[in-house]
């Protein structure tokens, strides 16, 4: 563990930090300023906050493998790399992606802790950066506990010359969730009056994630989650949040309505359709349109761009000699490049619930329709939500969107029950249904809600955590495993704790059960 933290801290990387802020700083001597000196500059905290966001760009690189590829939504039709092992629940503690996802989140946490440790030095006009740091620290720990379950909570930049890692044992998950929620709530106070920017943490995002943490903890607190989510849903216009949705005209044909709704849903992800529609079905293919990526449905996203974003410069911008970028790392397995490696293929089980007939809107945005052939049992149907044709991806990664908030609100009101007729839950649920071109419901069941989340958020790395949160993971994944000759057991809901963490502090951390 000490070696990991030494690497992370030594690589606090003023070079990388200043790379993310190159419009503001002279890079001729990027290590000229120490952290202490940087904090004394007029915009030092802004630069540090940009560094936190830049560090987080690396997190989605492995997230598809450790979440979606371990669900019943997708499969790997390949022998390449780690893909078959993740898909089969057959990974081990030495797996590189397991370790990298852990360390990328920890690296972001370290950047955030640099701001938090020095928060009393932040000038008045940069207090929002402290709120962003608390938010990002909470978000990364939220990622880690949902993936590994048994983790420490790192709340300071550790001294590389001391054995401070021994002060950070694995904690009871309930304790970790308390700390995550506390950090999200602390961030709200700092961000309450900050300018809303979809590429930066905001008060609305912090409220929503605090609620999601309440729902995800071992003993869900539905009432607190409901109160938080109600404050967002009931004030959505104030926050500027809404679904992208074209009202269906009474004089329009079903085909015309579906055409509009398909375009709307594609625009959520910053995508445009090339070509025309025939009887409401798109003839063309999707492509990224950066002008659509900042929209009212996106609450928080991470920019992946070949040029600077609106408010911070990404690690892959303006570096003429750079070959591999953070965008490429994010995009490869999840975009049109995925099929070349035999991944992001819809499982046969998922194709039973995601058909053009059952999902006339979501189907055409989520899948490459040309690859869909239900007459072939071995048909490979590919993801279309991130339609980058090359190795460098332009699609932003949406961390949170308003459709998630609406369905979480319904979940909080359902409160672990099997069904509800509460109008608030049903209205929120039906908003998402109507945008998908589906009929409204008058009674909302737990099964309906889980099924709706599955088709709404496919390829957005939600399914595995939804199954765990709803208490359905063992039942659903064991059946999926049995049908496909995989190796799921109830312990495999969570990843193994990285072996290098165990090796760096022998006899300090315990491996998760089943590994």
From TrEMBL:
Which residue ranges does the record assign to the SusD-like N-terminal domain?
49-215
Q: Where's the RagB/SusD domain?
A: 392-515
A Pfam family annotated for this UniProt entry: SusD-like_3
Q: Has the keyword Glycoprotein been applied to this entry?
A: no
Which compartment or compartments is the protein found in?
Cell outer membrane
Asked whether the UniProt record includes Repressor among its keywords, one would answer: no
Q: Coiled-coil stretches, from where to where?
A: none
Q: Where would you say this protein principally sits, based on its record?
A: membrane
Task: Report keywords, A-Z.
Answer: Cell outer membrane, Membrane, Signal
Which family does the UniProt entry place this protein in?
Answer: Belongs to the SusD family.
- The protein in question is named RagB/SusD family nutrient uptake outer membrane protein
Q: Organism source for this protein?
A: Formosa undariae
